[in-house]
Amino acid sequence: MFKLCPCGSLKEFSICCHPLISGQTIASTALELMKSRYSAYVSHDVEYLVATWHPDFRSPDLAESITHSFEHTQWLGLNIVATAEHGNESYVEFVAKYLDTQSQQQHSLHERSHFIKLHGSWYYTSGIKPQVGRNDLCPCGSMKKYKKCCGK
């Protein structure tokens, strides 16, 4: 029996994100890194998340901050909205749904992540939350207006 990868690829975890997370291979694109980082959040792999964060953008308490984020978060799914790659710089816009296990409320994290390729490896640097208009389609992929979906 196999386990599907949390990144949503519909591939087996052992042949999708696990080789990246376990260090057997490196991401060839920022999108691959983004998906593997999502899978690492799902599996609570702090070491991989810190290792794939660009060294110049790591805070001293990064590992502790990531570990703390695991406490009441159950990740439910990842939707890639858009990607853009320009040489050694790339952006991946995504929506990740999660459950706050303390309040039992579902939420969405919508982010445009920035990645830099350094010495042949992709690294996450930062992310911004894109502005979505109330009448725009919700970025979660529901095909509903934002104000009737995640913007409530």
> How large is the radius of gyration?
16 Å
Report strand order across the widest sheet: 1-2-3-4
Instruction: Report the major sheet.
Output: 4 strands, antiparallel
Low-confidence stretches: none
Order of helices and strands: HHHHEEEE
What is the third-level CATH name, the topology?
Answer: Nuclear Transport Factor 2, Chain: A
SSE topology:
Blueprint: H1 18-21, H2 30-42, H3 46-51, H4 62-70, E1 73-86, E2 89-100, E3 105-118, E4 121-128
Antiparallel strand pairs: 1-2, 2-3, 3-4
Protein name: SEC-C domain-containing protein
Organism: Limnobaculum xujianqingii
Domain YchJ-like middle NTF2-like: 29-127
Describe this structure as you would to a colleague.
It is a single chain. The radius of gyration is 16 Å and the shape is globular. A hairpin with a 2-residue loop joins strand 3 and strand 4 (121-128). The mean pLDDT is 90. The longest helix is centred in the N-terminal third of the chain and has 13 residues, at 30-42. Strands 1-2-3-4 form a four-stranded antiparallel β-sheet, with helices on one face. It has a single domain, classed as Nuclear Transport Factor 2, Chain: A (Roll). The chain has helices at residues 18-21, 30-42, 46-51, 62-70, and strands at residues 73-86, 89-100, 105-118, 121-128. It is built from four helices and four strands, in the order H-H-H-H-E-E-E-E. It is an alpha+beta fold and 152 residues long.
